[in-house]
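Fig. S4 source data, part A: sequence.
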Amino acid sequence: MSTLKYVGQPLHRVDAPSKVTGQALYPGDFTMPGMLHAAVGLPQEAPARILALDTRPAEAMPGVVRVFTWRDVPRNEFGIYENDQEVLVRELVHWAGDPLALVVAETEDVARAAARRVQVRAERLPAVTDPEEAMRPDAPLVHPEKGTNLIHRIRIRRGDLQAGFAQADVVVEEEYRTHCVEHAYLQPEAGLGYIDDEGRVTVVCAAQWAHDDVRQIAHALMLPVDQVREIVPAVGGAFGGREDISLQLLVALAAFHLRRPVRLVWTREESFRGHGKRHPFILRHRWGATREGKLVAAQVELIADAGAHLSTSMVVLANACSFAVGPYVVPNVHVDGYLVHTHNAPNMAMRGFGATQVPVGYEGQMDRLAEALGMDPVDLRQRNILREGSVAITGNVMPPGCGAEATLVEAARAAGWRHAGTWQRPPRQPASAPHKRRGIGIACALKNIAYSFGFDDKAGAEVILRLDPSGAIREAEVRVGATEVGQGVLTVLTQIAADALGIRPDQVRLVTGDTARVPDGGSVSASRQTYMCGNAVLGACQEAWRRWQEVLRAETGDVEVRASYVFRALEVRRTTPFDPETGQCEPHVTYGYCTQVAEVEVDLETGLVDVLRVISVQDAGRAINPDLLRGQVGGGVHMGVGYALLEDFRQEDGRILTRNFSEYLIATSQDMPQELVSVVVEVPDPTGPYGAKGVGELPTLPTAPAILSAIHDATGVWITRLPATPERVFWALWERGVGT
């Protein structure tokens, strides 16, 4: 095989030409002859008990073909982790986005008008929207059949907590709160359902795990899995919001019954109302350290709001608990994690998946300890940072490729810290006006790559080598279930395949996005596609190359060589579930690490925070494509700035208050850092393709805590609740008498 020629190079995106020229088709672009249009009838009250549902006024409208209710669903249940959702509500409305009816008509306008005419008589039920209130014995039950709103509890016990605190010279204690945010992807949900030439129920839609969508659709329609197909074209953003089913089952249901194509496209308002959000967390921390700056004890309580349906919340809580004290060695730890149902919107996968919320707490604690000890925050972090061979709070030994310290050191140096026995922070820069203050903050984070806690994470790939008469490879067709949601995975896999086969990237033809044609590549989540599908493609290409060499030696005249490979993460590094009593386990396959420095300016008169500079240092293991990696950093920091300062999805008493972008603040170019510096650290993981891990989620994780740290450095005020809006910062300044 060839030496590496394309891996590590900034190859242009293979999907860029079709997207910039407008040739790429997104789900909302698909139409078919004879197509019908659908609209969803949503509840006016939530939570509520349906007493009567009258579809006759809708059915009487000219142009209406059919109105579907729960009676039309063969098996009226679905879910990505547990089947606790109904395709169409039968009796209990758990939240404002639960669909009641599906109207199918000749035109979209008629379908929408008819959906508004579905008449519902409902009994309003008491709502519980605070997770701590939901855990009380007398709280209204979100799912009465479960008998409790407390879904799951995780305990981690390591060392002797009391003895640890007895060793501590300094103890700091604080409560932090993170909030609910919207995925805000560019393209609202859209889908087309039809029956294909082989009689399969087929759905064209945006998705992050098409093969799992097929499983859920087949279950609800009571069909064999091979009678359901999903096609994923270009996707206008995802960030976790397309991992759960949204409208796939609805268009599949309509096509299944009507045997005609049915199209459903949500408005932005329907998208805001119809899909899940990022989990809000309550984070309570009590930490102790010695005067030398060694962490000796940490007691952490995490309470996560799952919302009305379970989705992937069990694993979100598991991730959060495993990262509760961050990338640090703490010998004595108690962590208690609680997952609770409320009548809020279901909370689900979103960039970082439980690892995004907890840095607000553990990095806040590190800053408090550094201040209490009179120690530089970089010094404190470096004295306690995880290294290869360190023992984490779940008892696992950190594997090769542990780049936490490398990212910390590079970030500090890039920001101007100097090391002369100890770290010395850069000189404070003058503010732009007398009523403003400037500050700098640093934050570290880590996250799992691939699925964890014993899950059999796997990805498959198939390769077909087409040979010319001389026996040389003319084209390599690579079939893989990786979904391109804008992150650049198609380009990364092309580079891996080209180097593995010793051919040019333009000789690689990727086939993706059709469950009938490609093997299951798993979900586009957990920053796993480069690691999992990259390993699958690499393995299949290596096997194809070996068979090609046999063909050349035998001079058989074969014109095609085929090979397939399934990469299973458990075969290279086994993970295990939490021990129910101690939480000790082998939690994750591999890890990514990121450190960021934020420099901000705070207006003491208004509380407005201006982010001047962010330095982001991430350990990618091996940067397959440095330009794509920098693009991920830009997007991740953008999402982190919004999370820290602006975005806030509001709900009240079961009602959605944030309905569209006019009521939801997304960071614009004016809110982004004036300077964004991206530094790549490569600490290879020997189990990754060419040493690569994953980086997609990492740049979002430390942004908010770095900004909060910088606000404190500028003003002396601790902000413990996100988002740090001007109002929240102003009142914190006022309470401390800063600037007044």
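Fig. S4 source data, part B ends here. Residues 529-554 form the longest helix (26 residues).
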